[in-house]
Design goal:
Belongs to the HAD-like hydrolase superfamily. NANP family. The protein has 248 residues and is of the alpha/beta class. It has helices at residues 20-37, 44-57, 68-84, 90-106, 112-121, 135-145, 167-177, 191-200, 233-247, and strands at 8-11, 126-131, 153-156, 184-188, 205-209, 225-227. The protein has a 6-stranded parallel β-sheet, with helices on both faces. It is elongated, with a radius of gyration of 20 Å.
Length: 248
């Protein structure tokens, strides 16, 4: 790590600043209720939602080939057909998808303590939101959680040539803020994108948020620091800057 103070912090969005996984679970519960009460599905309702969850986790999205609404409606359509048999039911798939999506967005909020932390940090360093994913999906989340005003810049991977962990998107972020990679810290919950990307780009430090105490694979990228909550970040940044002062 270089001998300059931290000048900028890049934050991941999903499951770092907002509880995307929790919001998605709330959405799935609403769909289960719908399928059971309105369509009289029994245990099939949960099976369908489990299948969709698997499809979402394996999703490969190419913006040039399809729109995210079509792709995700198809996940529901396939899951319903795989579980229930019979003809495809696009209408029901759309109803499920839009209920899941709207419920999910309603529960994507920035906690008050996270807002306070970002406000305080921004007095000392520049803040940038760096999120992978489809442009429409990520912009809807950013709007839902009303986080844009807490950052000096927002970069969505789906709007760029390459996403995390490619170094190019990190260099683009540095240029936006007028800083060098060695001035910046990347904070995120995903080793393969957030941490690997920060390492690839030669950032000053990477901070992995490991809420659930996961033991990483031996082959996983190794972060400079591990915290269990994003709220531990201000103290950590202070200690990084103290090390710089002592070295100087």
């Amino acid at each position: 790590m270089g001998l300059s103070r931290v000048r900028a912090v890049f934050f991941d969005l999903d499951n770092t600043l907002i509880d995307t996984a929790g919001a998605s679970r709330r959405g799935m519960l609403e769909v289960i209720k719908l399928l059971q009460s309105k369509y009289h599905y029994k245990e099939e309702a949960e099976i369908i939602c489990d299948k969709v969850q698997v499809k979402l986790s394996k999703e490969c999205f190419h913006p040039y080939n399809t729109c995210i609404t079509d792709l995700r409606t198809s996940h529901w359509e396939e899951a319903i057909q795989e579980t229930k048999g019979g003809a495809a039911n696009r209408e029901l798939a759309e109803e499920c998808y839009f209920l899941w999506k709207s419920t999910r967005l309603q529960h994507m909020t920035l906690a008050e303590d996270v807002k306070a932390m970002l406000t305080e940090l921004r007095k000392e360093v520049r803040l940038l939101l760096l999120t992978n994913g489809d442009r429409q999906t990520q912009r809807e989340k950013i709007e839902a959680c009303a986080c844009q005003s807490y950052f000096d810049a927002v970069v969505v991977g789906g709007e760029q040539r390459e996403e995390k962990p490619a170094p190019s998107i990190f260099y683009y972020c540095c240029n936006l803020l007028g800083v060098q990679p060695g001035d910046c810290v990347m904070v995120g919950d995903t080793l393969e994108t957030d941490i690997q990307g920060g390492l690839n780009a030669g950032l000053k430090a990477t901070v992995w948020i490991n809420k659930n105490g996961i033991v990483p694979l031996k082959s996983s990228p190794v972060p400079h620091y591990i915290v269990s909550s994003v709220l531990e970040l201000p103290a950590l940044l202070q200690s990084i800057d103290c090390k710089v002062s002592m070295s100087a």
